[in-house]
Amino acid sequence: MPDATPLTPGITSGRLSAETLSQNFDDLHPAYAPHEAAVAADRCYFCHDAPCITACPTEIDIPLFLRQIQTGTPEAAAKTILSQNILGGMCARVCPTETLCEEACVREAAEGKPVEIGRLQRFATDTLMHAGKHPFTRAASTGKSVAVVGAGPSGLSCAHRLAMHGHDVVLFDARAKAGGLNEFGIAAYKSTDDFAAHEVDWLLKIGGITVETGQRLGDELSLDELQNEYDAVFVGIGLSGVNSLRAAGEEREGVSDAVSFIADLRQASDLSALPVGRDVVVIGGGMTAVDAAVQSKLLGAQNVTIVYRRGQDQMGASRFEQDLATSKGVRIIANAQPVAVHGNGAVAEAEFEYTTTKDGALKGTGETFRIKADQLFKAIGQTLEAAPEALKLDGRKIAVTGAGRTSVKGIWAGGDCASGGDDLTVTAVAEGRDAAEDIHASFLAKTP
Ligand SMILES: Cc1cc2nc3c(=O)[nH]c(=O)nc-3n(C[C@H](O)[C@H](O)[C@H](O)COP(=O)(O)OP(=O)(O)OC[C@H]3O[C@@H](n4cnc5c(N)ncnc54)[C@H](O)[C@@H]3O)c2cc1C
Ligand code: SF4
């Protein structure tokens, strides 16, 4: 029996039994059985100029892979997917398909029920990966070497494409494990059974990629040294800093950033040992806010509230994600901004002010309210840290043009740390892949 219950005050572990926790954190979208997949794929009209392809940042030939599933060749379907998106397995689990391919699907417009592209992509990629196959072979060695810094989706995708072309890649990461936010950020119920780590192992089967963990750009690594040692450098370090609330009392015990809480949760071997508050407040409106809130609830928090400063329709989290949160019992309060965190040492209440938008500017109305809180998560966006000084910035990101070219010749960047594109796994994969192709083309251009 658990030691605590959802009603136990304060931040404590063991609010729910191991059995309940395992049910709560089960796969969000269970895998299709083969006959279900064939029936679901059969709903596709195999459109000419298919809008779903254009809506996919990696431009997977969706009607082709659906046809391959329908005709009973899921491994061929997987190859179609993976040739455009080597992390097609993870993207099938985490992509907000409701705002990408499935939103664009003509069956969504006609019937409000799109072809379930994400789940079908998962069926195909899982089939191939369970068979232990890697569908690509590495070209003969070119003798060129590339340093890829950051082993998240952008770095992994870049490294794989470079290795396929026969270049030698060293993939550096500051953390002890590769995978980036696939390993440390994505909600646990989207990536079950250690899928992120399995996918990295599977991807590395291409050969030609050496992974070096515990190597941080700015500490163990310098851009100058990498430029001297390698023929090209790709920077895919994501956004590892967190924004502050700028509300009085934010240093109180019980206030922390949502990304760290999620990383701890993803790495926990026993969820019943992970402490969570009884009254949890999450500040923010993106996927991170929703993931922190939903997972707090699933761990056994009694009351979980998301507070977002603008209107609910402006939240970064999609409507599907918002509905997921409310279906789990999370309350969403829109149009309110944090003013202060109150308590005697530890947080006891969070104070907010209602907001309104006038002439495009967000303003407080002066009317405030308080919410009881023993744990408060900040989920108000991540920031770029340790960006090499030599690289020009565009706003708060590394400035890139074309396929990830930075302001310094021979250095490319992509994923969340680079300008342009949405901060999504699939976008990071596309940018890493495209930078790799551009690096490869630059090598060919130099070959006499
Ligand atoms: C909580 C959370 C949930 C999310 N959920 C989703 C989702 O459901 N669907 C979706 O599409 N997107 C989601 N995202 C966004 C998605 O995870 C990112 O867009 C994606 O991971 C970006 O990939 P990346 O390779 O650019 O960076 P990251 O995944 O952040 O990887 C960067 C890597 O670089 C390493 N690194 C950082 N600094 C250094 C340094 N100085 N030197 C060396 N290595 C360094 C890091 O350790 C990390 O491994 C989520 C993000 C968060 C924070
Ligand atoms: S838009 Fe929908 S129906 Fe048309 S090809 Fe894409 S998945 Fe099939």
TrEMBL record:
Signal peptide annotation: none
Top EC group: oxidoreductase
Subunit record text: Heterotetramer of 2 PreA and 2 PreT subunits.
One GO molecular-function entry: dihydropyrimidine dehydrogenase (NAD+) activity
Organism: Litoreibacter halocynthiae
A Pfam short name: Fer4_20
Source species taxonomy: Bacteria, Pseudomonadati, Pseudomonadota, Alphaproteobacteria, Rhodobacterales
Bilayer-crossing regions: none
Presence of the UniProt keyword Oxidoreductase in the record: yes
Listed PANTHER family: DIHYDROPYRIMIDINE DEHYDROGENASE [NADP(+)] (PTHR43073:SF2)
Chain's role: Involved in pyrimidine base degradation. Catalyzes physiologically the reduction of uracil to 5,6-dihydrouracil (DHU) by using NADH as a specific cosubstrate. It also catalyzes the reverse reaction and the reduction of thymine to 5,6-dihydrothymine (DHT).
Name of the molecule in the record: dihydrouracil dehydrogenase (NAD(+))
Dihydroprymidine dehydrogenase domain ranges (all copies): 23-131
